Amino acid sequence: MLDEVDLGIVKVLRREPRASARQIAIELGLAEGTVRTRLKHLIDSQSVRVTVVNDVAKQRNPTLAIIWIDLERGANTGLVVEKICALTDVIFVSAVVGVADLLVMSFVKNNNALSQFVHGSLDSIPGVADVHYDICLSVAKDDFLFQPL
To answer: In the chain, where does the domain assigned CATH 3.30.70.920 lie?
Structure first.
């Protein structure tokens, strides 16, 4: 669980991803060593990831597929999720409550690629009962801040 110091560091990095430990320390009123230690712990514990996120709108084929998966009654959700997460085309997987059991996101080159992915990969996973999908026509906001602070 992140404490107030960790959350402060994350907030600064969200706003200014290339901020140095010194800059963060000055802004938060902390010792630079404290910030370095906390950053190392956040990364080592996988509480945060330091990564590059592409701007979807600037990609050549920015077709984002939103895929809704219904599971068979009694299916082992954990095993199905594990198999879906192992697929290289998948960028996001979540168990959900609502119109489906799972939400999956994937970037696809075109409708053929989506059809092949759905019918060649997802449909063949034991426990998957039905797959529905939507194609994003445009992206109005893409900040990848899935967790509010």
So the answer is: 56-135
Helix residue ranges, H only, 16-149? 21-28, 32-44, 77-85, 111-117
- Note the pLDDT tens digit of each residue in 14-49: 888 899 999 999 999 999 999 999 999 999 998 888
| Residues 60, 81: Cα–Cα separation, whole Å | 29
For the domain made up of 56-135, give the CATH fold: Alpha-Beta Plaits (3.30.70)
Q: 93: helix, coil or strand? A: strand
Q: May I ask the CATH architecture of the domain 4-44?
A: Orthogonal Bundle (1.10)
b/e code 45-72 from CB counts within 10 Å (16+ = b): eeebeeeeeeeeeeeeebbbbebbbebe
pTM listed for this prediction: 0.67
